[in-house]
């Protein structure tokens, strides 16, 4: 197939493929197709790392998600053909062997659940047919994998806890969600790193500082593939953790 259409050849249909298409006048999207969710996620994130290492002139954004990767560029410095060609080369190179993600790091996050810290805990419990205690137990029962960085400011978008069904978003989003708020929606979980609007139900809040500096590189202490473990604490324990930065757990 002609790469000028935005779809490239070289796909291995037996193992899935990476389809590459133009996205507006200054973007290209690479999407993993024909793969299970885990392999698709690993593929697009490995492709993001490989493409980033090329340091192609004119590229100013590389955004991997669950099964696709957006490359944003300055069309005065490069073009769709060049970006697609480099993506195709790196995708084919990755396809020659197993895709192994970087070793996961673990972050332990204390959370005060319910009350003023998690005003939607009773609603979520009612929606799931569980007690508030059961919701907290499930939310804090296992390590949750960060799948991608979202808005605002690199929020860690995680696999959700093992709730019996997806959690609906709020019918009326809040105009301001406090930093450190711990929320769920659908089958995902997230921590809000800075004040922002939000429509995800709030289960609690952590006293840790999730985001240190908007000018930092990298922006966040965590990366896709890392895991978070939420640990319930009481309101009286808030000050024991307040002001501390989110950090890798070595315990």
Automatic annotation (TrEMBL):
InterPro entries: CT_C_D (IPR003833), Cyclophilin-like_dom_sf (IPR029000), PxpB (IPR010016). Signal peptide: none annotated. It comes from the Bacteria. Residues 18-222 form the Carboxyltransferase domain. Keywords: ATP-binding, Hydrolase, Nucleotide-binding. Gene3D superfamilies: 3.30.1360.40, Cyclophilin-like. One of its GO terms (molecular function) is hydrolase activity. This is Allophanate hydrolase subunit 1.
């Amino acid at each position: 197939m002609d790469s000028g259409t935005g779809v490239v050849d070289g796909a291995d249909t037996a193992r899935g493929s990476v389809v590459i298409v133009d996205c507006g006048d200054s973007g290209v999207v690479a999407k993993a197709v024909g793969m299970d969710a885990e392999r698709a996620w690993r593929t697009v994130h490995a492709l993001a790392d490989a493409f980033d290492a090329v340091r192609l002139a004119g590229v100013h954004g590389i955004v991997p998600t669950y099964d696709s990767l957006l490359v944003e560029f300055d069309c005065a410095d490069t073009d769709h053909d060049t970006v697609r060609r480099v993506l195709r080369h790196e995708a084919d190179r990755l396809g020659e062997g197993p895709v192994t993600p970087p070793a996961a790091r673990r972050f332990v996050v204390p959370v005060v659940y319910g009350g003023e810290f998690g005003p939607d805990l009773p609603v979520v419990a009612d929606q799931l047919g569980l007690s508030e205690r059961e919701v907290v137990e499930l939310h804090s029962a296992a390590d949750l994998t960060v799948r991608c960085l979202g808005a605002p400011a690199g929020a860690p978008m995680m696999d959700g806890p093992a709730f019996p069904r997806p959690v609906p978003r709020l019918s009326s989003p809040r105009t301001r969600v406090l930093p450190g708020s711990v929320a769920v929606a659908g089958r995902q979980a997230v921590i809000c790193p800075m004040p922002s609007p939000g429509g995800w139900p709030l289960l609690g809040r952590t006293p840790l500082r999730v985001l240190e500096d908007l000018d930092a590189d990298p922006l966040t202490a965590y990366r896709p593939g890392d895991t978070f473990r939420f640990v319930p604490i009481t309101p009286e324990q808030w000050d024991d953790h307040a002001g501390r930065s989110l950090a890798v757990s070595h315990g």
